Write a sequence for this structure.
DNA sequence: GAGTGGTCTAGACCACCTT
DNA sequence: AGGTGGTCTAGACCACTCC
């Protein structure tokens, strides 16, 4: 059945169906994207219905839906049964994304590192800890303390304390034997699920305890990384506090700019390619310093960022 | 036309078509997901063809394709014309994603902060800087130095140096008047495009220069955040080095767990909800300390992460 | 050339939202 | 109740891949 020469018959694209123009939904898609980008529809306004678009483009509903699916994937419209397609953005949103597949990528410890567990004990939450854990002072919690070492280096490069609800007491014995991440073990054994990790990075100075653990002087600069593992319901599953001597660790991350949503991501699935990973490597390289100096005296102030 | 009672007729799901079972593709999808998860197909192996699946499930090709589309979105299979559907993963890949829409979210400076530009001058790259910039020592670069302040606080909370290729010299005059991010200005004015931001965070001690800028003592702990803005071709567009006194700034980020690809992302598009932002707030709260102590003496070492 | 997925049409019932 | 998107069927041509 030769495709009736609709309003789009002059279009062309790739492979095709009935007659000989190539796929039509990309053309429809492009037109709609352009119209949206040109501001033809206000944010919150509704796109014409599928039916209307079918008529306008002389295409079947299925074809129009394919085009609309892409608009949705690009984040331009939201669709809902009964309500139509609403404009939610004029341009495909771009984001810088730091995407992490395994916790190891977040934690950034090479596989040549390991944890020396010093102790697992029951503690009582004090006021400070209460703030961190969103727990009531006096409440009992579990604390694991450990040193993280890397092969071939005498000194540990991190002193870590992990706090867990007392409910996890049962698995204390297993921690030493655990190969995967702690949070994964908690998920597996208790059926909880980490939905979110909140990470906080700051520079602090070593107190006496941490200093002795890491064999550095008290007051030495540390990179302290706190990680809160939060369940879907907001419960804190685990709090890990890592203390890294300044010269033994550096935190790195790479943010890739990409459109949000399925558009590009799905293209990756079109056929297997190297699955781009992101977060970067590991232990600190050699420390670097650079001299800074200023001559000029221009002055101004701007709210601008980097 | 009542749907012929195929092998799936006992299934049920949601809303539906011909007869009365509800949508069928979710059921088909679930079955395939389970089979893949159970290891029925090896990685790299091919899934049965659409035709075969149609027969097996007694569904139309369109319906089977809908199911397969989701498998693809979940990252379980890759499809290609002529070659079939290949298993590329046994489980839906989960990632923790830190997604940042604007640079401000990355930089984490509230809108109540601003930059006091101290100087913009031409410098000559020394050896250390050469490493950072991937430039040859001796090469001329542009350097901007500035203090970042927040309303109501006397002391700046960051001393920043930004390095740019000498080619951007023309816009030196505009920097003071710039409201948006510097990198955005470079993009706009020079037609370059930031494709990637590499960020490195470490604890360092203040050298004399930085200390005097920030009015802190030499040797005080700093959080140093370096950001490399890299173009698609790998060119370094800008390097920003931020020095934050330890007690005046903290870097925070939230990673949300989500399946990679369209699956969940698309669900967000199903209907507008609050578009979950991620990266979190700003200036440092009150400094916190906590006592650490250990009693027990269990010992073990594991490669495991938090 | 046979097989596979990509795209298309035409018509249909249904669930959901708006009116 | 009418409109809208969600899902389904049945049949078709095409481009691409692999043998």
């Amino acid at each position: 059945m030769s495709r009736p020469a609709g309003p789009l018959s002059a279009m062309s694209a790739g492979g095709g169906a009935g007659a000989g123009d190539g796929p039509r939904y990309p053309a429809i898609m492009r037109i709609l994207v352009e119209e949206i980008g040109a501001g033809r529809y206000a944010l919150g306004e509704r796109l014409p219905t599928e039916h209307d678009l079918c008529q306008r483009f002389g295409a079947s509903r299925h074809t129009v839906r394919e085009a609309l699916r892409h608009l949705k994937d690009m984040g331009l419209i939201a669709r809902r049964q009964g309500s139509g397609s609403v404009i939610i953005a004029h341009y495909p949103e771009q984001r810088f994304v730091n995407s992490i597949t395994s916790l190891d990528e977040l934690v950034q410890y090479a596989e040549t590192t390991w944890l020396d567990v010093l102790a697992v004990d029951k503690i009582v939450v004090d006021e400070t800890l209460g703030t961190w854990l969103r727990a009531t002072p006096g409440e009992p919690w579990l604390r694991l303390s450990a040193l993280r070492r890397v092969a071939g280096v005498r000194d540990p490069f991190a002193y870590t304390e992990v706090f867990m609800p007392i409910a996890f007491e049962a698995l204390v014995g297993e921690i030493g034997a655990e190969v995967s991440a702690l949070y994964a073990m908690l998920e597996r054994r208790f059926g909880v699920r980490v939905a979110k990790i909140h990470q906080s990075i700051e520079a602090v100075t070593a107190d006496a305890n941490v200093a002795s653990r890491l064999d550095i002087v008290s007051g030495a600069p540390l990179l302290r990384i706190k990680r809160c593992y939060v369940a879907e319901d907001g419960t804190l599953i685990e709090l890990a506090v890592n203390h890294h001597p300044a010269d033994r660790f550096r935190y790195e991350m790479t943010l890739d700019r990409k459109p949000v949503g399925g558009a590009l991501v799905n293209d990756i699935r079109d056929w297997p390619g190297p699955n781009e990973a992101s977060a970067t490597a590991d232990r600190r390289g050699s420390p670097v310093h650079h001299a800074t100096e200023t001559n000029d005296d221009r002055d101004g102030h701007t709210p601008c960022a980097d």
About this structure: Residues 1, 3, 14-19, 22-25, 59-63, 66, 80-84 of chain B lie near DNA strand D (CB under 10 Å from a C1'). Chain B has eight helices and eleven strands. The helical segments of chain B are 25-37, 50-57, 61-73, 103-107, 127-133, 182-190, 208-214, 262-270.
